């Protein structure tokens, strides 16, 4: 009984990761990335962003520049959709100025004829970068300062009325980098991602 439940969960997680990868909401990084400790026997790669130019990828068409590779957006849909994002941590929430760099570490395997291929199985950790808005919650500030270590954090995309349209749950969020500038940019590492 336990094995079938675990197997079903792993299958569902793998299908969710594949759907996010194919839609461009998730970037595949092999488990041999520099920030994941000692490298394993799997290769590392980052997914290429879809291009808007007609015929992209066809013979004779220009390849995307190095700056275009790996740039993904968490937003789906039309360019005129709402760009309000809310981060909720320990009961406090704040509107964010931007969310970028959503990546998941996934074990990959390179084969000579097929290139890189994801190895199915349990998800590993990932990262996301958020830029704080003008109104900052004390709970998120406590997470940044290391005074609290919540079990989950929620990231919601909101419509124009403030209702959530997409919901992401980050398990065991930990701040790994803070860049202070005109706006505070915070990189968060999490152990798994649930999309709802």
Number of helices: 2
For this structure, the CATH topology is: Pnp Oxidase, Chain A
Alpha carbon gyration radius: 18 Å
Number of domain modules: 1
Q: Mean pLDDT, as a whole number?
A: 72
Biggest β-sheet strands, sense, barrel:
9 strands, mixed
Which percent range describes the beta-strand content? 35-45%
Decide which structural class fits the backbone: alpha+beta
Low-confidence stretches: 30-73
> Could you give the distance between the termini?
26 Å
Task: Give the CATH architecture.
Answer: Roll
Assign a percent range to the helix content. Answer: 10-25%
Label this structure with key terms.
alpha+beta, 15% helix, Pnp Oxidase, Chain A, 2 helices, globular, two-stranded antiparallel ribbon, 35% strand, 196 residues
What does this structure look like?
- The chain has 196 residues and is α+β, with helices and mostly antiparallel strands.
- 15% of the residues lie in helices and 35% in strands.
- It is built from two helices and eleven strands, in the order αββββββαβββββ.
- It has helices at 2-23, 138-145; strands spanning 27-29, 84-89, 92-105, 108-111, 115-118, 126-132, 152-158, 164-171, 174-179, 185-190, 192-195.
- The strands form two sheets. Strands 1, 2, 3, 6, 7, 8, 9, 10 and 11 form a nine-stranded mixed beta sheet that branches. Strands 4-5 form a two-stranded antiparallel ribbon.
- The longest helix is centred in the N-terminal third of the chain and has 22 residues, at 2-23.
- The radius of gyration is 18 Å and the shape is globular.
